[in-house]
Design a protein that fits this description.
Length: 151
């Protein structure tokens, strides 16, 4: 095997278009199909961030999402009002709060995960076994891309 070829700009554009199309294709397996009401993207992003980093402060969530503290604080308040998040006093600083999912949010995440799993299974079933295996093997790289800090 020779040296890996450099990635061209057209390769990058193709990957970006493909990733966007895949996300749109998978969205049909999301909240509505799980029997949950549609949510604004800002609320979905905050819920995702809290699920990935439970016990974060509003400031930490804002940094992770590259959003303004005030916007994240407003979104957290809406999600608290809907029973999806809760504020807990920070044990190290009682003036500060840490954000956690409620049981309802964890339950809803389980429903959404199950719907996405079914949707991905349906998409993979439309491929050859070798194609499906290639995508499965790429999952760790895709996970790394999704967790890389944005410049």
């Amino acid at each position: 095997m020779g040296e890996p070829q450099a990635v061209s700009e057209s390769d990058v554009e193709s990957l970006a278009r493909t990733a966007r199309s895949l996300v749109w294709a998978l969205r049909r397996f999301g909240e509505r199909e799980a029997g949950l009401s549609a949510m604004p993207n800002s609320e979905i992003e905050v819920l995702r961030a809290v699920a990935e980093q439970p016990g974060s402060s509003v400031s930490e969530l804002a940094r992770a999402l590259d959003l303004q503290n005030s916007n994240v604080s407003t979104t957290v308040s809406r999600l608290v009002d809907r029973g999806l998040l809760e504020r807990r006093a920070d044990p190290n600083d009682r003036r500060s709060h840490r954000i956690h999912q409620t049981g309802l949010a964890r339950h809803n995440n389980g429903l959404i995960d199950a719907m996405w799993t079914r949707g991905v299974r349906d998409l993979l079933d439309s491929l050859t076994p070798g194609e499906a295996r290639t995508l499965i093997e790429a999952a760790p790289l895709l996970a790394r891309l999704s967790s890389m800090p944005k410049n």
